């Protein structure tokens, strides 16, 4: 019997076979992978991934879904279910406990908390090999946006500083039960190699980016006045009269590394 989607959990269960197959193909699971699925729901992705890899850890908050997942996994592979809020799951510790260098993470994320989940995963990027997520198309557009785009913003900068962002394909509302009111898209995130990551203080970078985009119409000189004065911004080779949406992710790193004069 199919589960009734719960609005409080933002549940929209993927059911259309061709999109399930496309997602599994994009992930291309292998028997030696350690797969982690966020929000397995009714198992539309869970079971084909489990069949390909032989084992999978699923993170599910809704206790009503867990018995069917466990029962239906019998004979397919080794399914471990973690009953938890994904925002409280330590992916780095999970990788260490399993004795693996990198996790491969997938999921049809609840759209109402997709950004917090993305930021949480980025905090553990060193323990993650790649991520494949179903998200609201608008969010994927923001994730992959380039400087100058109307949708380029904090999410774009923070994710692109940590990962390579690859939009893969769109998924229509009718592929879900119940259909969401928006189009969806699948995206691949590949954490950058250690030598490709910036060496600025991550908290400082986040502070600068958040302040710069808090009021998009303001110039950087005004938006960052609590953090950097005009001279400090110029020392990063950036015009204080520029606006945040014109800066590259690397520009924000330079701003974060500027020493504030006493």
Automatic annotation (TrEMBL):
Domain Ribosomal RNA adenine methylase transferase N-terminal, first and last residues per copy: 19-193
Keyword Disulfide bond: no
Keywords from the named record: Cytoplasm, Methyltransferase, RNA-binding, rRNA processing, S-adenosyl-L-methionine, Transferase
Enzyme class: transferase
Superkingdom per UniProt: Bacteria
Record carries keyword Methyltransferase: yes
Compartment annotation: Cytoplasm
Chain positions recorded as S-adenosyl-L-methionine binding sites: 12, 14, 39, 60, 85, 108
Substrates-to-products reaction catalysed: adenosine(1518)/adenosine(1519) in 16S rRNA + 4 S-adenosyl-L-methionine = N(6)-dimethyladenosine(1518)/N(6)-dimethyladenosine(1519) in 16S rRNA + 4 S-adenosyl-L-homocysteine + 4 H(+)
Catalytic activity, EC: 2.1.1.182
GO molecular function: 16S rRNA (adenine(1518)-N(6)/adenine(1519)-N(6))-dimethyltransferase activity
Pfam families hit by this protein: RrnaAD
PANTHER family tied to this protein: DIMETHYLADENOSINE TRANSFERASE (PTHR11727), DIMETHYLADENOSINE TRANSFERASE-RELATED (PTHR11727:SF7)
Role this protein plays: Specifically dimethylates two adjacent adenosines (A1518 and A1519) in the loop of a conserved hairpin near the 3'-end of 16S rRNA in the 30S particle. May play a critical role in biogenesis of 30S subunits.
Family: Belongs to the class I-like SAM-binding methyltransferase superfamily. rRNA adenine N(6)-methyltransferase family. RsmA subfamily.
Name of the protein in its database record: Ribosomal RNA small subunit methyltransferase A
Native species: Dyella mobilis
Lineage, opening ranks: Bacteria, Pseudomonadati, Pseudomonadota, Gammaproteobacteria, Lysobacterales
Gene behind the chain: rsmA
């Amino acid at each position: 019997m199919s589960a009734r989607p719960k609005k409080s959990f933002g549940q929209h269960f993927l059911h259309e076979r061709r999109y399930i197959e496309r997602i599994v193909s994009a992930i291309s699971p292998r028997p030696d992978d350690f797969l982690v699925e966020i929000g397995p729901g009714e198992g539309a992705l869970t079971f084909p991934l489990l069949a390909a890899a032989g084992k999978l850890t699923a993170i599910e908050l809704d206790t009503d879904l867990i018995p069917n997942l466990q029962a239906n996994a019998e004979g397919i592979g080794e399914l471990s279910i973690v009953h938890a809020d994904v925002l409280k799951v330590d992916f780095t510790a999970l990788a260490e406990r399993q004795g693996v260098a990198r996790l491969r993470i997938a999921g049809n994320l609840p759209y109402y908390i997709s950004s917090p989940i993305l930021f949480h995963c980025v905090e553990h990027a060193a323990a993650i090999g790649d991520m494949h997520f179903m998200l609201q198309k608008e969010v994927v557009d923001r994730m992959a946006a380039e400087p100058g785009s109307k949708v380029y913003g904090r999410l774009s900068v923070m994710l692109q500083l940590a990962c390579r962002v690859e939009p893969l394909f769109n998924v229509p509302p009718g592929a879900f039960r119940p259909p969401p009111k928006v189009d969806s898209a699948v995206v691949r995130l590949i954490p950058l190699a250690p030598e490709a990551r910036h060496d600025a203080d991550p908290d400082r970078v986040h502070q600068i980016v958040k302040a710069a985009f808090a009021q998009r119409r303001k110039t950087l000189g005004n938006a960052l006045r609590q953090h950097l004065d005009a001279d400090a911004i110029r020392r990063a080779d950036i015009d204080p009269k520029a606006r945040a949406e014109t800066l590259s992710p690397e520009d924000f790193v330079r701003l974060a590394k500027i020493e504030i004069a006493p």
